[in-house]
Amino acid sequence: MTAVQLAHLYKTFTFNRGWGRQRKQTEVTAVDHISLNVPEGQAIAFIGPNGAGKSTTIKMLTGILHPTAGTATVLGQVPWRDRRTLSRQIGVVFGQRSQLWYHLPPRDTLELLARIYDLDPQDYRKRREVLVERFGLSEFWSTPVRKLSLGQRMRAEVAASLLHSPQVVFLDEPTIGLDVLARQELRDLICEWNRQEGVTVFLTSHDTGDIERVAQRVVVINHGRIVLDAPVSQLRQQYLSEKILSVQFHTTILPFPILSGVRQLEATDYTLKLEIDTRLMPIEQVITQVLQAGSVADMAIEDPPLDAVIAHIYTQPAEERSP
Amino acid sequence: MSLLHKYGLHKYGWIAWTSARSHVAYLGEVIARTLFLIVILYIFLQLWRVTYSETQAQQLGGFTLAQMLWYLCITESMAISAPRVAQEVDQDVRTGALAVQLIRPMSYPLYRLWSSLGERCVRFSLNFAVSAVLAFLFVGAIPISLTGLFLFLIVLPIAFILDFLMMFLIGLGAFWLEDTTGLVLIYSRLLWLLGGLLIPLELFPESWQPILRNLPFATIIYAPARLFVHPTWNDAIAILLRQGVTLLILAIGVQWVYRIAVQRIHANGG
Amino acid sequence: MEVKPMVIKAMSRLLNYLGLATAYIRLNWHAHLEYRGAFLSQLIAMLLNNLMWVAFWVLFFTRFPVLRGWTVQDVVTLWAIAAAGFGLAHAIYGNALQLATLITQGQLDVWMLYPRVLLPHLLLGRMNATSWGDLLFGYGVYLGFVHPDLVHFVWFVGLTTAIAALFVGFSVLTGSLSFYLGNASALSEQWRFAMLSFSTYPGTLFEGGIKLLLYTLIPAGFVAYLPIEALRSLSWIHAVWTIVGSIAVLGVGIGVFYHGLRRYESGNLMEMRG
Asked: ipTM of the assembly?
């Protein structure tokens, strides 16, 4: 069964500039003929730099925006036509726009949502218990949202979007602004929900880490077009095989040996930044070498930034890209 | 020059000038407020036109219809040009900015006074310019003598200073009160009602008039407007006398409260 | 036989909506009580402000007892009806005053994702604190100053409800300008101000072209004239016209909102969302 289907979805925006005779209309294409099928239960990551068309696509799939051309269905319904009926079956989280009541505890928002969605009181209570337990909401259940940390807030936000048991969840930049730990927690929760409840997850992000850990499939878009549509395992192998290792030392370091698959991005007396191709060189081995080079003060392993991944995709020949 | 320096007038004059210039940007807001003034002055015009015709009087409380509208156009300009002195002082007290001001070689009350005067002059002139045009269109000109204008221009700044002192005093309330917005509102509404914003004191009940005339509210709003439409030396002297006494009392009051407040800062470390 | 199920359906929908509205009102109260000091002082401030105006009119009428047939009772009734209507409107539908901001900041998005009719749901989202002051003042001053009998009081309740509908419609109308003009908050503010000013002076003062304006562009005649006349002599005609006016303004407001919403859905408002 297909949960989400996009066929040549196309969206342009018209901007008016200036006044009177100088008034000009410019058209900007935000989504450029995107076609896509998402089977039920899949977790798909929609990634791309800012302004690539991710949010516009989500807004069309949730019925907020009407497309210029093309069609889309979510659970068999056309979102912008059947917005209200569809809204009972989908959940949406906008990372930048909260639906929680700022001055009240999460409890109150959930109570209200139960009314908005006409949930049966008994079903609601059962569902609430599950969410509170799974999302660890009990520790801040009665604390006004304004006093919560961003991580806690996002957990409550996602839980709230799941209250009416939606079959498809759209998460627009859910991890934005979160610290490493909170980010990891939220990813695990989304992942768990997807695997255990079979909820279809449609996630946008510009963080490569989100994709690797949550999604099974990744769609990279840029300038409104699909650049890559592949299983995450392929992305991991081909484009995310590189890690960045940054090290700080207490003492000046000995010259670092040349290893195959390791590129020195930066080296000073006290710091070292390496790009490691993990297909050629396991990361453990590099770390062993680093420890021998001097007394380590701090160390961090990072994913390559999304820009680098996209640049990488563009340099690949086209036939290698298609799955 | 030396006199200027002795009293620090060069410094405070500059503050007023800077504040005035920064409020010329307010011009845009005044244009947006033109509609406000059109609506309110038109309503006043109708209210009084009907009142005059129903009572079949040429004059009410000594005002002709034209004088009444010019009176209201001044009081209205006064009311909507009031700077937010109390709110600013309240903020300075709560954020500790006042304690910081204390280490500057400058008197905080005088700094606030001059910057509020600069702001108010700009705002009043702009609002008055617009409402004068409207009054002229609605009822035509009223006779104004040079003497009248001169008297008005003496009384007006004193009214501004009196209003400032009242607001400053309320702002200092922040040292003792959790919230001064209520006081600010009560003051402004009392000023409007008892100061003759909507209706000149002559039309109040006979027995109230002597009391109202001597309250500070009347010296702030009623007095200058009344003098503008009805300039006489006798009235001017009486008004100046009242303003002088009020000024003295308020200045002493501010001085006293301010000193207690500053002692609190020194005692509590701000 | 087919009519009955439809009526039942409509009733149950209405009840459902009332339940939702109650839930929002409760939540809004809770949110405001988080800052009860500020809430209370706003409320009292509004009471005082309105009382100042009543004091002005009492003063005015001690000098001039009758103004085009209206006495101080009538003008105080006018203030009571206008304040209670405006207060009732925004105490419940506080978001009507926020509409311009919601539109320009793209915050309608969140509201569009709920399985509820957009406008009546969205308007519930916020409560305007000072409006409770207006509401309290309106009923307080009517009961305390005018001393109505039961019949008049019932009429008063009905008329203020109609006026509330009118104010909701008017706020929605002015707020919806933002769909067309970008950030039109300054303009809608001026328009609202004109409406409020004309709504608080006796409607009998105005004639000619202005009168036409007061039943169209600035529909203050439905607040400051018709309901007062209705209440003075329990005149059905004036009451009916008041209600007709309210429904018309509400209808225009709703129409303009949904027309503008189509622009929002086309996404071409994006330029101001940045």
From this structure: 0.88
